[in-house]
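Colleagues,

For the teaching module next term, I've prepared a clean inverse folding example: a structure given as tokens, and then the sequence designed for it. I'd like students to try predicting residues themselves before seeing the answer, so please don't circulate the second half yet.
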């Protein structure tokens, strides 16, 4: 097994740890986290050894592989690119119970939970998360750093643009676009395109407010 670090010692980090253990190829050995209050603690049986300042130490110890498990989309992508620039190798965490069509295309460094379905000709961009039980139907295009929550249902030809979030249990009908940086709240049903940076909720989903622009740092 290959030793791997996880950046992000929260709930998503624990999920990634479980995915890697279930997969049997990678062995999580350490958490890193930017929250100094977590440094020196133990999470899910693994030590939290510090933040970015510990990367060189990990590399000297022969730990070169890492997954960034941070819920915020822009931050997850930014940390991943920073770690790669420091010499770490980004890996994907894909649960063995995920169903992925041979015709689907997965970008680098994706997280895919158990019972997720990535259907025919779907495309996932780098740094995306597709959570447990989520369905990305045929010809979906999921952008860079997007987050698809548990039990989300994306019908055919849906596009979720860069850094957008579709929360737990939401549904999107065929052919609609969730704009860059937008957020679809839990349980909503999207029947119209969602503008960039909008927050939508309800059945059918309506714009509630605008979120800050999702600018990659």
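(Answer key — instructors only)
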């Amino acid at each position: 097994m290959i030793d791997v670090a996880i950046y992000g010692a929260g709930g998503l980090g624990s999920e990634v740890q479980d995915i890697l253990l279930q997969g049997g190829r990678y062995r999580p050995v350490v958490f890193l986290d930017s929250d100094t209050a977590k440094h020196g603690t133990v999470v899910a049986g693994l030590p939290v050894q510090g933040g970015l300042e510990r990367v060189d130490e990990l590399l000297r110890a022969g730990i070169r592989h890492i997954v960034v498990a941070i819920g915020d989309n822009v931050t997850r992508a930014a940390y991943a690119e920073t770690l790669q620039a420091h010499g770490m190798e980004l890996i994907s965490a894909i649960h063995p119970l995920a169903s992925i069509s041979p015709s689907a295309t997965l970008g680098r460094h994706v997280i895919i939970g158990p019972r997720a379905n990535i259907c025919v000709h779907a495309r996932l961009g780098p740094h995306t998360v597709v959570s447990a039980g989520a369905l990305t139907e045929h010809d979906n295009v999921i952008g860079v750093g997007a987050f698809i929550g548990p039990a989300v249902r994306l019908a055919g030809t849906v596009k979720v643009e860069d850094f957008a979030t579709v929360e737990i249990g939401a549904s999107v009908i065929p052919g609609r676009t969730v704009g860059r940086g937008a957020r679809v709240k839990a349980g909503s049903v999207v029947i119209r395109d969602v503008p960039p940076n909008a927050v939508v909720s309800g059945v059918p989903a309506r714009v509630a407010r605008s979120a800050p622009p999702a600018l990659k740092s």
